[in-house]
Amino acid sequence: MDTISVADARKAEAVGKAVRLRGWVRTRRDSKGGFSFVELNDGSCQGNVQVVAPGELPNYEAVVKHLHTGASIAVEGEVKASPAKGQATEVLASKLELVGDADAEAYPLQKKGHSFEFLRTIAHLRPRTNTFGAVARLRHRASKTIHDFFDERGFFYVHTPVITASDCEGAGALFRVSTIDPDSPPKAEGKVDYTKDFFGRPAYLTVSGQLQVEGFACALGKVYTFGPTFRAENSNTPRHLAEFWMIEPEMAFYDLSDNMDLAEAFLKRIIADSLDKCGEDLKFFAERVDKEIIGRLEGVRDKPFLRVSYTEAVDILAKSGKTWEFPVAWGNDLQSEHERFLTEQHFKSPVILYDYPRTLKPFYMRVNDDGRTVRAMDVLVPGVGEIIGGSQREERLDVLEGRMREQGLDPHAYDWYLDLRRYGTVPHSGFGLGLERTVLFLSGMANIRDVIPFPRTPGNAEF
Hints:
This protein is α+β, with helices and mostly antiparallel strands. It contains twelve helices and 19 strands.
């Protein structure tokens, strides 16, 4: 007798097999005919399998008729074709064992609907719901595709540090990592003496692995990092997290155009695999969360990404006749309202904006010959706006040092990074994709707190 998943038990080819199933009870319904229907789910798929528990089971009265939502059970039986509408199979139980009971009065997940806000307060249990089970499976699929995509193209996976002394973005919104007692810190010349700290200097949780991964790109050619990053911004919005996962490929000898080509192929592959492998979950999202989601994903998968300069985009927005919450002018950063107008109303297509004003972007982006713009790009998609940000990196030592000083950074603190320009410098490019924002886009979910297992936001670090 094979132990199989609920997903496999629901397939027509399983009919006639003697199987063992394990999972959690969603519902139980007792029939006047002397048997019970138990809806069983083990997280392997969106749907449940119906277990028919006959009254002849020795523990029918003592156990089966007292099964509650949330209880865990193990079932042995035969998969049969189901006469019921909407399900191909059911399992006729020859044995049903209660593994762990769930108090019907105390168990917080009942058959009724629950708000996402409430479910965030029980983040350890919300994966058992249809919505968050679907989110978890979609997140898994996207993660697997990411590794497959880069592996197939000869990229090497690099593990960059979570703790760093370098501020990649120049933003200063960093989480400090310290073993110093805040009540009695060691001091030198009236200031905290960080030479006495664990790392002997100020250290932070990383906002990006990009600077470190550039070193590997300049040795291995094509690399990527995929790991957690942290931002200490006090942004309590549906699109911001303090801890999130980033994918950052970096390629030696790639210019901005090569970077755009890779970003487009990458995003299309994630979408294609999600549509192909997560059809049941995406159908659920279309029915319960966002009815336009599948059509929107297919549109991004199938349409070429238009390439439009920042300057062109500003001109289009300024001439649109719309009233904007955030003013449009050359030199101002574009906001979500602008990005979504371009993709959803003006072009009705994914768009890659490029050549942004140098004042808007970090020091490491390559300065164009006009001196006003840098070789930056943002990939915009309908429904979300920006989903990928990247650039060609500044490979000229003197220009890079000047950009650092321009943004108030001490080049000496980045001496190791500057070495990459001193010893065999090459043009290189890369981009960043936030996994959570990608899952938002794939699912149609509205709040980023609902696409990560345990969200970390200002004022919240539960579980």
